[in-house]
Specification:
The protein is of the alpha/beta class and 344 residues long. The chain folds into two domains: 6-182 and 218-242, Rossmann fold (3-Layer(aba) Sandwich), CATH 3.40.50.720; 191-214 and 246-280 and 298-342, UDP-galactose 4-epimerase, domain 1 (Alpha-Beta Complex). Helices cover 41% and strands 17% of the residues. It is globular and about 55 Å long. The mean pLDDT is 97.
């Protein structure tokens, strides 16, 4: 299979979706991409500024749960690549409604449109969080789903619909489950960009609980390359795990960020933990590696590039840390930081 030439990319103004759009247009001269994005707090047209004048790219403001808009755009596409989601666990704990509407119902609307228009591929971008907490070993694609937050439960709902549309209607679906991404253009409320930008300003870094939760860090461009490999070489109906191979505790991660930035550990505050906080995720990526993919960035390289990007792009992130962001920050961290303790 070659890469479908007319892509409808949902959520393309977010962190990973915009990296996909920028990289695919750079790499493939005969590709056209329509981005459908609702521009929630996490969506940002500045993420697409590098390609905004490219005639092969078009932006449409809209909701994946709006069947009319989705249908008209799907009619002009060969494939859907869907990043659109509410993606932040902490926000799902505070207000789950939008997660169910976008991540479950929105996925259904997209699948219906792909089915109606006989698309060559439907690629759903999902997460390792659907497997739930993994005390030891690594999750395989056929493992049972045990999501434990409203975010991961709504993503799991979307995943199950994707599987059902392949089994029932023969839709040529592909499903990927990636580990924690990091890199440029990452909205500064997820842990790495939050900690880097707070450290730049000598503000406290709120580390949840004992900081011994483990995440596997994947550089965003490596994720995008994996998605391209799956679109071209993936088997319809199959699921592919994508991991960076960089499992770290949050405490190790925080220490490394501060060391690289030459900032003191005294900035870190241990704050009350996230409710239902999964201790560890880990995915086995052998299936994807058999398609020829492996990550091109070491964690050290990726982290240095990311820190450098935030130091050089205060014009991108400073405006985001205002208005609604500050209200969210106060709700999320005000009491927690007041109750926080020092970390050695
Ligand atoms: P993000 O929050 O940065 O971006 C999400 C984008 O979707 C935003 O541009 C937002 O405006 C858009 N959106 C939200 N609701 C929408 C709707 N109803 N209709 C249209 N657009 C809508 O998220 P991200 O980190 O780029 O994640 C992208 C996808 O990858 C998500 O599906 C997420 O579950 C998955 N994922 C993320 C990670 C990670 O570490 N960030 C890891 C694995 C999987
Ligand atoms: O595993 C993939 C998932 O990674 C994606 O599906 C999600 O979309 C993405 O947001 C991310 O989820 P996490 O919950 O792992 O990411 P977050 O950056 O919110 O948190 C990473 C870890 O850091 C987690 O163990 C919680 C911790 N943390 C987070 C924040 C925001 C802190 O200790 N303090 C914080 O302030």
């Amino acid at each position: 299979m070659t890469l479908p030439r007319r892509l409808l990319v949902t959520g393309g103004a977010g962190f990973i979706g915009s990296a996909f759009v920028r990289r695919m247009l750079e790499r493939h001269s005969d590709l056209t991409i329509t981005v459908l994005d609702k521009l929630t707090y996490a969506g940002n047209l500045a993420n697409l500024a590098p390609i905004e004048d490219d005639p092969r790219y078009r932006f449409v403001l809209g909701d994946i749960a709006d069947a009319e808009v989705v249908d008209s755009l799907a009619a002009e596409a060969d494939a859907i690549v869907s990043f659109a989601a509410e993606s932040h666990v902490d926000r799902s704990i505070e207000e789950p409604d939008a997660f169910i509407r976008t991540d479950v119902y929105g996925t259904f609307v997209l699948l219906e449109a792909a089915r109606r228009h006989g698309h060559a591929r439907y690629l759903q971008i999902s997460t390792d969080e659907v497997y739930g907490h993994v005390p030891e070993g690594s999750s395989l694609e056929e493992d049972s789903l045990k999501p434990r937050s409203p975010y991961s439960a709504s993503k799991a709902g979307g995943d199950l619909l994707v599987g059902a549309y392949h089994a029932t209607y023969g839709l040529p679906t592909l499903l990927t489950r990636a580990s924690n991404n990091y890199g440029p253009y990452h909205y500064p409320e997820k842990v790495i960009p939050l900690f880097i930008t707070n450290a730049i300003d000598d503000e406290p870094l709120p580390l949840y609980g004992d900081g011994l939760q483990i995440r596997d860090w994947l550089y965003v461009d490596d994720h995008v390359d994996a998605l391209e490999a799956v679109l071209v070489h993936g088997e319809p109906g199959e699921t592919y795990n994508i991991g960076g191979g960089n499992e770290l505790t949050n405490l190790e991660l925080t220490r490394t960020i501060l060391e690289r930035m030459d900032k003191p550990m005294s900035l870190v505050r241990s704050v009350p933990d996230r409710a239902g906080h999964d201790r560890r995720y880990s995915v086995d990526c052998s299936k994807l590696r058999s398609l020829g993919w492996s990550p091109a960035h070491t964690f050290d390289e990726g982290l240095d590039a990311t820190i450098r990007w935030y130091l050089d792009h205060a014009d991108w992130w400073r405006p985001l840390k205002s208005g609604e962001y500050l209200e969210y920050y106060r709700r999320q961290y005000g009491d927690r930081l007041a109750a926080g303790t020092a970390v050695e």
